[in-house]
Amino acid sequence: MLVFLIHVRDPQFYALPAKTRAKNGNIRVMGFPPIGIMSLSAVLKRAGHECVMFDQANPETPNDVIIEEMTSRQPALVGLSFLSTTSYPYAKLLARQIRAVNPTVKLAFGGVFATLNAPLVKLQCPEVDFVCRGDGEQLILDLLECLDDPEGVASLTWAKDGQVMNNPNRTMERHLDQWPFPDRESLPLDFIESMPLDVPAVLSMERFTTMQTSRGCPWPCVFCDIPIFNEGKWRARSPQHVVEEFKYLQALGYGSVYFVDDHFLLQPKRIDAICKGINENGIAIQWGCEGRVDSVAQHLFPAMAKAHCRTLMFGIESGSQKILDRLKKEQTLAEVETAVTNAKQAGIEIVHGFFTVGNPDETVEDMQATFDLASKLPLDTFGFNRLCVYRGTPLWHEYVKRGLVNEATDWYKYFKCSEIDPTCLPGEVINDVRRAGLRRLILYKLRHYPMQTFRLLKRFLRYMPVRDVVYLIIKPFLGKTKGATKAEVMSRAVEHGAMKDAAAELTQLTDEALDHVMQESIAERRRIQQEAEGLRESPMASGR
Ligand code: B12
Questions:
Q1: Does ligand 1 come within 6 angstroms of the Cβ of 87?
Q2: Are 244 and 101 in a shared domain?
Q3: Residue 179 in contact with ligand 1 by CB distance below 6 A
Q4: DSSP symbol at 445
Q5: Which residue's CA lies nearest to atom 28 of ligand 1?
Q6: Are residue 157 and residue 229 in the same domain, yes or no?
């Protein structure tokens, strides 16, 4: 059967200008490849199905192009994959556009957000036939067997006679080695490495991809929905299987890999075996991963560095123990310091700290403690994000009980905690304290870690215009800015706060308003396109 899989994200968000095409003609995209649909494509192809993927990071495949392609090729199933609350509005619109031109094609949603909100999504998007919950590999194969009668397909939400049906969960798959490596060869895109989340600076122009070596994280952080998505379990591929994938990627010319694992640092024996396998097989790919600061695998940091682990990212969150406890991070400030110091001493080149600001019960002093901690730690890079609350997380449940969010009307909305929780500092104050904190932090780093800062800036300068690097440093010293600057938009070198705000605002709209805004934006894009085409055509016409 022919299956279309689409990774829905804000179009044109990550694409680099067309002139940066790779030698093979592929468009170069800065960011993460859509490993969810790539995993499913590999499984489908191995089972003898045909699969066509679209990644909306590719500016050449906006909705209309995908729909045209669908009309001409008539797939049996169109799967829309999206990660989060912020991409849900785009997925809804695409589903509606598809349904408008094709009343019979089977449509499915999948991904973390869809999983955690399946019955609600099915009710709000009746045009979508199936909401697929959890791991998709076996599910999509089972679904293709019974597209017209999916009663027996476990972990599927669908509708029968106008009634939403929530088929029972399938048993969580532990044997992850059974699945083929993701299909990395079928998208006309080459990815280059960026720093994830809020510092999307290009760190390497090597051919880049992601890998998933484990799934889940069992810790109870109040803001995270991963334990719910994975039923509180952590599952991992064998070290041999991971090393095989590294060998395969090296043969394909990849130079840089990032693990999208929720907690790579959980099992020392496995990490040791992966590192040994990398060295024994002469793998030179640089890689990065994320983990907790209380990991018992820290004695392996030197082995990881020797096996070309270049980036290690820790979820530090706060410099105030009170806030760490409030967030149920189950980690201490001493553990934070030990882990970051160990990682640097082990020779890991880029050690990153994820921090959150705008936390419940956080005072200005708590926030300042966060920036003080970030200054003193030998971190190379850091990001300070506003804490958000997602449906399904422990924090969401608390907010429901406190009457701050409404299960029935707010489930699909994206909220910064400070917007709804009176125990958070007001947004303006958070931004002011953050700006002042960043100023202090940058000056401290320049004074106390000049070589480390210099090395990082040198790396940025290799691929970013000087103007953008300078802007990155001086941004906190400038006054308040409104919206994305041209430099921000062009290089994606600095926080894409304004774009994220716009995406967040979309999640707040009613369905009718959303349709209207989306149609307007499509019309606007068409108009710009037509104008551009007109401009391109007129000089040729006059020359003829
Ligand atoms: C890597 C990552 C990113 C990358 C993006 C990667 C990409 N491809 O674009 C970056 C850094 C850009 C990113 C950004 C954001 N992210 Co993020 N991200 C992740 C992370 C760590 C891994 C995702 C991943 O690659 N998983 C591996 C693949 C194999 O799994 P998968 O995509 O889920 O697919 C499987 C199944 O879901 C299913 N499936 C998926 N699609 C479909 C479709 C069909 C038809 C079927 C049958 C099955 C199916 O099958 C697949 C194989 O089993 C997750 C945490 C997690 N573990 O999921 C957070 C996570 C998804 N992100 C999250 C958030 C909040 C964000 C941001 C909003 C953060 C921000 N404030 O900017 C943005 C929004 C991005 C967007 N527009 O959607 C939250 C989402 C919570 C929520 N309810 O919304 C998560 C869950 C993190 C968390 N702990 O809370 N993210």
A1: yes
A2: no
A3: no
A4: H
A5: 36
A6: no
